[in-house]
């Protein structure tokens, strides 16, 4: 009994060891990226994955549907009271329908259809009273074939619900399994291959479907002893083989020549719970098998070798789940693995092969992320020096493991300083270990022991400083030692140290013919002539380096043409050593940063340099620069000074803040697949525009919209866009322009939004294009026409109104002009008439004046005798009265003649107004006296009555008016 138990335990340990070895080897070669709830995924349980024709990834989770574009998730869930949302969040299967431009979703309550035009759902819920009904699905599968037929497999908790088919005319589903004679019992999966052939897997057999006859055909087994097979999943590779996953025996079968045969027998558990849930082929050579509660089995199709991917807490880039639910290969060959409660594991086919090594707590892991030294000894073994709890480690890149020799500060016979800065080789089998504060140690590889090699103050035959920064073995087997003090040189043949005073802060050394190049942190480059034993502080010939004396050299490497490349704080420097002027390459030449931490040259003469913002690959002959950063798999963007190595096999190592990267330069390939560019959102005044509203300018999703018309008040808007790219999407670059507004393409960098403010009314075309993470630009340009309406003051109705007003104004103006012309003409006529009247008046006055002259002489001759008669005394009173009357009228007539003559003088302004006071009463009496005879002749009696004796009046010039009035009254 005990022997049997021991045998069982031994077998179990061997089994676990085999799994562990396979898992360790495979996890190192497969580096996964992970997406979980914290990254925006609705749930860590992912049951279904697809990629649509726009290259978006869709994930069906236990909490809803997610769309992923490489940057973020757009999530869809059930919203209470909203009939346009999912009817249930637990999703078991999804499929794209390109004919209807929608996504079909199977959930616990039936089927939902997401319209990609409006992003609204149409739900097909459970209805037990309908002939087209679903029972509650525990798990289901949906498949849309090339003809647009929608097939749904419903699987309850204990039994299959059968096969459903969508009926377009009735917009509902019919259960084909309940039709008479149906063979679709125990359905488990549906799959359409690349040859447009439809396959149905059941719990007992595999069926193909004939569209012409609408019939099912059962596939036979090649082995007659097999009469049934519980199929769980199907997958077709590029060789047209149909791979079949099973339930009970966990084996994989293959369909060839219309018959099924066993391909691979499971090497793992036969537990019924460990069934195969999904299959996929990666890189055309490895079959990925999802085994429930066990992990991912990887089968090499050429050799049949099997390995198992399982989670490991010490491997942050390994797979994260033992319970994979689905494996999906996308169009670019990447692998997406959904899991139960551990999110999505993403295997990037185009990921740069920058292998990353970081600290972990296992005995075979890296001692510390703070790596300060690399060295390859004469046996080809790689050594890593670390600090902060570190020591030295022998590194095996084949399996990524380390044999660690950790420092022990309390053991003086061991390495008692845990800050290792540099490593070199004294002789075969013996390493020199330089430390910060502990001098130099000697490590015996065979004995695995440490001993003190050199410390300062050990007499003249010692090093100058216990803080050792550089160790270098030259072609003459001498050891060059750099510190903050002087440079020390150890000669093994004489077992003595010599010194180069004044050469402080030496950090790197290099043989250069008869010279040793010494790079320092304070005074640039020193050149030691070995034959002359002289040292010179080299004066750079480059103008920029002559001006700035503070040149820091962090590393040196020689290319295939003999040039020495130096990493400096001023840029990347090429040094010939032949008296030529140096070449300095800086940010102006395309480098991302002028501070070069370390430098190496690969076998193809490419210069690789680490910086504070990533690693660059520079080709001098092609004048090309490629920049890699943490999104390409680097430990971080920040690297350490002078810590790098190129191995004899051509591998390059660089150290940084979070461990170190090791890579083979020729395996760093650019992703040549350009991304697809899509519009993801549209905003007006920074508010998201909803689709289909009465006042919304969007009637369908912005990515499907060809033209958008905006009111003038909506002239401040923004477009959001994305380059769908899953390899280093954070490095994608964007260019955009609003044609008709922007004069040229606008560089957005990695920003995925274009903002415009107060765009003038007009017609425009918004264009955007993008590159992938490796700078490959898409030839396709996303284009949408934009029309901004003018304000009402510039609209067509306004212009019509303006036209009407203009016509009215012109009519009014015409009328005004006409009236004005008429008035002017009338005025001209009046002026003409007035002139005529004036001429006539002047002629009349001239006539009267002339007549007056003619009348004045005879009148004077009459008046003079009358005056004498007045003064003549006569007793005849009647005669005297008549004489007085004649005299007064003669005088009156004289005044009238004088007044007529005054008109002429008035016109010529030659008369002055003379006011003469007169007694009006007396004057009136005199006037009346002149008319007494006339009155008597007419039997009239003139009376004049007044209440005053006299009235003084100064208007004698108008006395003739009174006279005329009296005369007219008498008539």
Features of the shown structure:
971 residues; alpha+beta; Methylamine Dehydrogenase, Chain H; Immunoglobulin-like; Helix Hairpins; disordered N terminus; membrane
Q: Can you tell me the CATH architecture of the domain at 539-667?
A: 7 Propeller
The proportion of strand residues reads 35-45%
Q: What's the gyration radius in Å?
A: 57 Å
Determine the fraction of residues in helical runs and give it as a percent range.
Answer: 10-25%
Low-confidence stretches: 1-28, 128-133
SS summary, helix count: 7
| β-strand number | 68
Q: Strand count, sense and closure of the main sheet?
A: 5 strands, mixed
Strand order of the largest sheet: 18-22-21-20-19
CATH class of the domain at 539-667: Mainly Beta
The average pLDDT is 87
Intertermini distance: 178 Å
CATH-defined superfamily of the domain at 539-667: YVTN repeat-like/Quinoprotein amine dehydrogenase
Outline type: elongated
Q: Remind me, CATH topology of the domain at 539-667?
A: Methylamine Dehydrogenase, Chain H
* Structural class assignment: alpha+beta
What can you see in these coordinates?
There is one protein chain. With about 950 residues, the protein is of the alpha+beta class. It is about 15% helix and about 35% strand. The radius of gyration is 57 Å and the shape is elongated. Among the domains are: about 130 residues, 7 Propeller (Methylamine Dehydrogenase, Chain H); about 110 residues, Immunoglobulins (Immunoglobulin-like, Sandwich), CATH 2.60.40; about 90 residues, Helix Hairpins (Orthogonal Bundle); about 60 residues, no CATH class. The strands form 17 sheets. The protein has a 5-stranded mixed beta sheet, with no helix packed on it. Strands 60-66-65-62-63 form a 5-stranded mixed beta sheet, with no helix packed on it. The protein has a 4-stranded antiparallel beta sheet with strand order 1-29-28-27, with no helix packed on it. It is an enzyme of class 2 (transferase). It comes from Saccharicrinis fermentans DSM 9555 = JCM 21142. InterPro entries: His_kinase_dom (IPR005467), HisK_dim/P_dom (IPR003661), HisK_dim/P_sf (IPR036097), Ig-like_fold (IPR013783), Reg_prop (IPR011110), WD40/YVTN_repeat-like_dom_sf (IPR015943), Y_Y_Y (IPR011123). Its EC number is 2.7.13.3.
